[in-house]
């Protein structure tokens, strides 16, 4: 009998020890900020992690702000128990999103308090109060922006320029046009608080587009200013392209192989992959290549159009692709196709720096040149390339030869002008008068910063922060170009 009692006592002791080991909280919960803030704005966004590694799991977490003698609840979460032992959650990521302005929080110093509780038993009385308390500054005042250019005339598919004075607390500024964003460049003007932006109304938008200047400070307070803009419509013609079996047999396997894609049995489906998916991938890559630009103009006057060339198609043609009598696809052609002689020398459209030279998806062998302030030119379908990335070039300099690489049916040059990766109408940049009327006034509105030292061996005459001096080229009449 005594042995049974001793055995039962031992079982009880062991069970109590096991339960105690599971339920007793041996370490207080803790909180760690993913990025500890010194200040927050009107829309506070905070990320932190609550931990209770030696406990049966978190029970409750809350985040509060103490400001001006008042306490504001920013976040609260109960963690439900999974069983008698507790929740078993020993680490919980927390995202706090709160509109401090709507809550009535005042600007100035405050305390950010985080409390956490567990399902654990406590041998000693449980600690009261927050497990984390941080001093923080509340900043609810957005940055300010004043437009120095008051009227902007622009055509759909075309570009314009704006100048804006920014308050010193501005951390980010851009012009938003639909889903397109064009950055404000600071450092071009001698006044560090004045920014410059070239922006566009891309070809897939309408005259109803409403460009806006958007600025934000370091804690996310934002301000939006409408950009006065008179937008004129533009006509982009529709053009049928007929595909035949010989073209598909020649091009589809070649392009798929060059882009590390598996061969296909159905050439029409292979072509559709190239014309849709590879086209999107190529434009995404172009966007990456053109993400960074020299913050001053390298160009000097009107852009040069390929010598002795005639346009086969123009900017933003709405192309209808037909196989037999069936329409199989529709795409927009983002550039000019210029043809002259086979293997004709290709010339740089303006002074700049080569940022890409190589195979580029649907464009085949291609070169991209940075002309500064977000303006880039693209030369596609080349048979050969004689420049390399990082090389400075001058207007008219030989950069390669025309060809039919990539998605080209015959020997020609695909030429594009891009602004921050968005294709815009090259006709404007071929026109010295358009540059003088639409770009130069913004570049010369205020004194510019001292020009950077020219790169050794580079295009010394081009790399200047001074405003470009347009040449005397006559305006190009797009409607007069042969189709």
Strand and helix layout:
Layout: H1 2-23, E1 30-33, E2 39-40, E3 43-51, E4 58-67, E5 70-78, E6 91-99, H2 100-103, E7 108-118, E8 132-138, E9 145-147, E10 152-155, E11 159-166, E12 170-177, E13 180-183, E14 185-186, E15 194-200, E16 212-217, E17 222-226, E18 229-232, E19 238-243, H3 245-258, H4 267-289, E20 310-313, E21 317-323, E22 326-333, E23 336-339, E24 345-347, E25 352-359, E26 365-370, E27 375-382, E28 384-385, E29 392-393, E30 398-401, E31 413-419, E32 422-424, H5 426-429, H6 432-438, H7 440-443
Parallel strand pairs: 2-8, 10-18, 19-21
Antiparallel strand pairs: 1-3, 3-6, 4-5, 4-7, 7-8, 9-11, 11-15, 12-13, 12-16, 14-15, 16-17, 20-23, 21-22, 23-31, 24-30, 25-26, 25-29, 26-27, 27-31, 28-30, 31-32
